[in-house]
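Propose amino acids for all 213 sites.
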C-alpha cells in the first residue's frame, strides 16, 4: 500500500503542488521508519528513527518541498539525511540529490534503503553538513532538515547565484523559524524571508554527542 490517504490529508491541509503530492504518494513512509513505529507511519506526525533523531512530519516535508520547488536535473543539497525520506521525495521530483548525514549508522541505513528502492540520482556523504559539500558546489538549492542556531555561512556560499536555501534556524528545542534565503546574482545582499514557526532536531556543529540507543 502506498501513502495515498496520507497525501489526501496533505492536500486538505493546503499543499497544492501536484508534483509534490504525486512524489509523496508514490512512496511508503513505513519503509523509512523502524519496525517499532511502523503502525504510526501514516500519521501526519514526526516519528523516532533512532539515535534521538526523527523523520519529519509529512506536512513539513511537503511544505518545504513545495517552497523549494526542485526542478528535474537541478542539483539539490540536503543537510540531515536521517531516514532518507525527504531525499527520496527530492529524487522522485527528478533532482540530483546530494545528502549529508553526520551520524554514520543513520547514513548507512538510509543509503541501503534508497538504493534498494532505486529512486533516482542520489549521492551520500557522512560528515558535518554545516560545512556543506564544497567539492560538489555550487548547488541550485539547499535544504536543511535539522536546525542550526544560525545559518552556516558555508551553505550560503555554496549556492549558485539565483539559488535558494531553506533551513530551520533557532535554538535547540526553542522557537525556530523556517527561513528562505535567495542568493541574488552579483554582490547584492541575500534576500531572507521567514516562513513558518517549526521545531526540528538540532544541526550539530562538528561531531554529535553520543545518544543512548
Ligand atoms: N531529512 C530527514 C530528517 C531527519 S532529522 C528525514 O527525511 O528523515 C535530521 C537529521 O539531521 C538527523 O538524522 C541528524 O543526525 C542530522 N544532522 C544533525 N546535525 C547534522 C549536521 N551537522 N550535518 C549533517 N547531518 C546532521
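Proposal:
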Amino acid at each position: 500500500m502506498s501513502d495515498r490517504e496520507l497525501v489526501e490529508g496533505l492536500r486538505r491541509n493546503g499543499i497544492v503542488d501536484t508534483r509534490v503530492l504525486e512524489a509523496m504518494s508514490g512512496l511508503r513512509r513505513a519503509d523509512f521508519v523502524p519496525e517499532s513505529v511502523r503502525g504510526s507511519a501514516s500519521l501526519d506526525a514526526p516519528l523516532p528513527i533512532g539515535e534521538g533523531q526523527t523523520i519529519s512530519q509529512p506536512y513539513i516535508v511537503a511544505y518545504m518541498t513545495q517552497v523549494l520547488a526542485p526542478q528535474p536535473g537541478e542539483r539539490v543539497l540536503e543537510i540531515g539525511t536521517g531516514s532518507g525520506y525527504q531525499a527520496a521525495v527530492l529524487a522522485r521530483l527528478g533532482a540530483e540529490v546530494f545528502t549529508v548525514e553526520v551520524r554514520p549508522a543513520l547514513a548507512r541505513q538510509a543509503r541501503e534503503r534508497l538504493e534498494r528502492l532505486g529512486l533516482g540520482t542520489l549521492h551520500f556523504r557522512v560528515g558535518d553538513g554545516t560545512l556543506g559539500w564544497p567539492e560538489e558546489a555550487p548547488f541550485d538549492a539547499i535544504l536543511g532538515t535539522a536546525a542550526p542556531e544560525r545559518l552556516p555561512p558555508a551553505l550560503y556560499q555554496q549556492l549558485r547565484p539565483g539559488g535558494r536555501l531553506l533551513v530551520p534556524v533557532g535554538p535547540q528545542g526553542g522557537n525556530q523559524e523556517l527561513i528562505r534565503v535567495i542568493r541574488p546574482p552579483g554582490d547584492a545582499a541575500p534576500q531572507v524571508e521567514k516562513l513558518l514557526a517549526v521545531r526540528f532536531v538540532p544541526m550539530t556543529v562538528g561531531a554529535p554527542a553520543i545518544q543512548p540507543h
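Strands lie at 47-50, 53-55, 75-79, 96-101, 122-126, 139-144, 159-169, 176-182, 191-198. The pocket of S-adenosyl-L-homocysteine is lined by residues 53-56, 79-80, 82-83, 85-86, 100-103, 106, 128-130, 145-146, 201, 203-204 (CB under 6 Å).
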